[in-house]
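Morning. Coffee machine broken again, so started the prediction first thing and wrote up yesterday's gels while waiting. Chain of 347 residues, entered below exactly as on the submission form.
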Amino acid sequence: MFARAYWVTGPLQGELRDEPLAPPGPGEALVRTLYTGISRGTEALVLRGDVPPSEYAGMRAPFQAGDFPWPVKYGYCNVGRVEAGPPDWIGQTVFCLYPHQSAYCVPVEALHRIPDAVPPARAVLAANLETAVNGLWDATPRIGDRIAVIGAGSVGVLCAWLAARIPGCRVELIDINPCRAEIAERFGVDFALPADARGDADLVIHASGSSAGLEQALALAAFEATVLELSWYGARHVTLPLGAAFHRRRLTLRSSQVGQVATAQRARWDYRRRLGLALSLLADPALDALISGEDAFDDLPAVQARLATDPGDVLMQCIRYPFCVYKNRGRRHYVQRLCSRPHHDRA
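Came back before lunch.
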C-alpha cells in the first residue's frame, strides 16, 4: 500500500510523493486523513528555508521526515479517522501532530480523540489553540486587566478570544488589516488599527511576526507591564528600541513557545493533557470563523507557495482529503477497504 505526502523540496517548492505504507503493528493504528491545516507562519518559514541551522533540532515536528532545510515532510495539524488498529480505536475521529499525508500509521499514544461536539474540519485549529492556551498560561493575565493583542492571525485571535473570557478584562485586537475588525467583532473583542490602539495595557501579547508589531507592543505596555512574545522569526533579525522608556517603565519582555508546557503548569500538566484541553475548547461554533476556506489535497503544493508569498486574508487554511491509500503508484487506484463509505460519510 502507498500513501501520498507533501514534501518541501526547495525554496518555495513542494511536491506530493507516493510513499510505502506498512500495516499497523501492535499498539499502532492506521489513520485515514480527513483534513489537515496549514500553520501558516511556521510552515511559511519552512517553505522559504528560514529555519536557522541552530534550530534544526528544536524545530523538528513530532513525525517529521527528512531534515531542514529540505527535502522535508513537515506539518502538525492532522485530523483523520482510525481504520485499523486496537478495536476501541477503530472508527474514532482523531487529531495527530502529523504532516500533510493521506494516511499513516502511528502508536495510539500519539492520537487524541476529538470530542463529539467538535466537527472534524474545525479540529485542525487544535495545535494553534494549544499554542494560545500555553501563551495565556505564560502571560498570567488577571481579572480586570487591559489586554492588547497585536497580530490578528489565528494564534493572535485565539489568544484574544481566551483572554476575553476572563471576567472584567477588556481586550483589544490590533492589526494592520482592517478586515480583521469583523473577526474581532465575532469574538467579542475590540479592534484597532496600529495608529488607533489604546495604550497603558496591563498585558500585551505580540503575535504579528514583525519588528514593527513588537516595537508597538513595548509602546503600548503600561508601567511594569508584561509583553509576551509569541511570534517566531526564524532566521530574521529583530531590532527593538530598548533605550527609550523600556527601563524607566520597568517592562518585562517574555517569550512563550509551545514546545514546553508553561512553567506555572508544568508540575501538573503534560502535553497530552494540554492538547486535550485545546480540543475540548473547540466545541464553540464561533471558531469556524477562523477557517478561511478549503483546498483539495492535490492542490497543496500551489496553496503552500501562495500562502508563503501572498497570504492575503487567510487565517487557517483547511486541506481536504478525498481518498487516502494507494494500492500502487497509479493515482486512480485506491484501497477500497478504506474508502468504501458513501461520499457524504467520508468527510
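The longest strand covers residues 28-38. Going to sketch it on the whiteboard this afternoon.
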